[in-house]
Amino acid sequence: MSYLELFTSQTNVFGSVQKTFEDGKYVVFGVPFDSTSSYRNGARFAPNAVRHASQNVETYSFRSGIDLEDVALHDAGDLNVSLEAMKTVDMTRLVVEDIVAVGKMPVAIGGEHTITLGEIKGLGVKAAKTAVVSFDAHLDFRCEFMDSTLSHTTFMQIISEQVKPAKIIEVGTRAVCKEELAAAKKAGAEFFTSQQIIKQGSLLVGEQLREALLPYDNLYLTVDMDVLDPAYAPAVQNPEPEGLSTTQLLDLACSICDKRVLGFDVVEVAPIYDQGVSAVTAAKVTMEMLCQLEASRRK
């Protein structure tokens, strides 16, 4: 090892943990894109804000018994995004294809939720055999919004029609329109509302979620931070009251972080709207999911 390698490092990597790409099992990359934002923008600033916050989160996870420092993690940096949504989706797809091709897990930090379309497309033939689980206040099943057919409000409808995953399950739902409900029903999507989770508790709903996922060999997880109540994550692009607590989200998400997971993303933080609360929460969610995935692979 040279002195350069010994005494210097990239200043802003997730969790301050950095393996080489060759040695990493989990490859983090940022997608600083928010061009289709319909209410607030600013998610393009999230990848670096979440990385910065992660460096101040302690690395040991009591949930999983794993320390992030012992996870083979490589932060590849940020995608050079385009202002055009489809170009960014295509670039995201290509990057995910490269990561998956060498047997590593993609972990994306958004950016707006549209990027999930590129991530799932990047899974290739496995996508059609995969259950997609989305933690989100919204269904994102619109066919069109603000004269656009591709946006953070329509991407799940596109996934259902073009990628055709084995199943779509949405968790934390509480903000929809009639059009979306009809489209989701047509696609065979299921959802657990935030009211249901609050009343029944995350442990019981977690059991129901795991049971619903039993038939599927592969999982892809996506976390829109607006699934949380604004009290826990105020700096998101589309905040919606009556959401989940951080503990409820982690209970549910970590309960399905098993060997079937092909990848995940955490999106929609808009850090300019608070003093770092939402970014550090997103960092904590990412860290806990990584640690739980590592624990599942060591069993």
Keywords:
two-stranded antiparallel sheet, 8-stranded parallel β-sheet, Arginase, Chain A, single chain, 299 residues, 10 helices, alpha/beta
Detailed description of the structure:
This protein has 299 residues and is of the alpha/beta class. The protein has a single domain (3-298), classed as 3-Layer(aba) Sandwich (Arginase, Chain A), CATH 3.40.800. The protein contains ten helices and ten strands. The strands form two sheets. An eight-stranded parallel beta sheet has the order 4-1-5-10-9-6-7-8, with helices on both faces. Strands 2-3 form a two-stranded antiparallel sheet. α6 links the parallel β7 (167-173) and β8 (190-193). α2 crosses α10, α7 (194-200) crosses α8 (202-213) and α8 (202-213) packs parallel to α9. The longest helix has 22 residues, at 277-298. The mean pLDDT is 94.
